[in-house]
Design goal:
alpha/beta, Rossmann fold, 7-stranded mixed β-sheet, 42% helix, globular, binds S-adenosylmethionine
Amino acid sequence: MKGRGQESFVSLPRFAARLYNALTHTQAIERQHREIARDLVARLARGRLLDIGTGPGRLLSLVHELNPELELFGLDISEAMVHLARKNLAGLNVNLQRGDIRSSGFPDDFFEMVTCTGSFYLWDGSEECLEEIFRILKRGHSAYLFETYQDFDESAVQKALKANLQQESLVRRLVTPRLLMSQLRMTYRTNEISDIIKRTAFADSYTLDPTSLGGPPAWLRIRSTKPAARA
Ligand SMILES: C[S@@+](CC[C@H](N)C(=O)[O-])C[C@H]1O[C@@H](n2cnc3c(N)ncnc32)[C@H](O)[C@@H]1O
């Protein structure tokens, strides 16, 4: 059966991970990661935070810069991405592991926060992955998944992209919109995301907020909370 895309990352060669790193190292993406990092740090002062599909590890680096007290973990299905993140985060106390969020191996009730940026749309077995996030989250805590969605406003996104990329090199101005558009074509529609979550333990405790944190208005913040235990 055809997967959602994670397979292409499992076998990603190291040079391709380095290329991804170079192409996505734009001011606009840096701004977006920084705003997401601020959003997360404003909600969590201490404890363990997991970034799923951490890729080159940029979000973790910015979170660390804003709050070095947080205990940071990165998980990625791609050996090449984990290798790259280890290089990018050298010297920082970050726990990086290769693994699939469908079966992460972390203990129950372990994390105060779980996040990801642009990874959920690639996961095979998205419901099982959400169940796994529910299992590893502490009670009363939330996952914040930042994801693009397919039913975005194309003219608003094109306008924002043009403005965001003004300062970038010609190569990036040409490549970045194509990368984003191919990602957007693979992502879910908002109602599909809702339908997936409704089939999981997060069914009664989630919100979907459109956001344009630092970037084009094509992003959703999916907040899924593991309810606190009843007294
Ligand atoms: C588009 S990249 C985004 C990387 C990074 N979060 C960023 O914002 O630059 C998606 C990442 O998710 C990872 N990934 C895909 N499926 C995964 C899974 N099931 N479990 C863990 N990581 C996964 C890929 O290997 C890849 O590094």
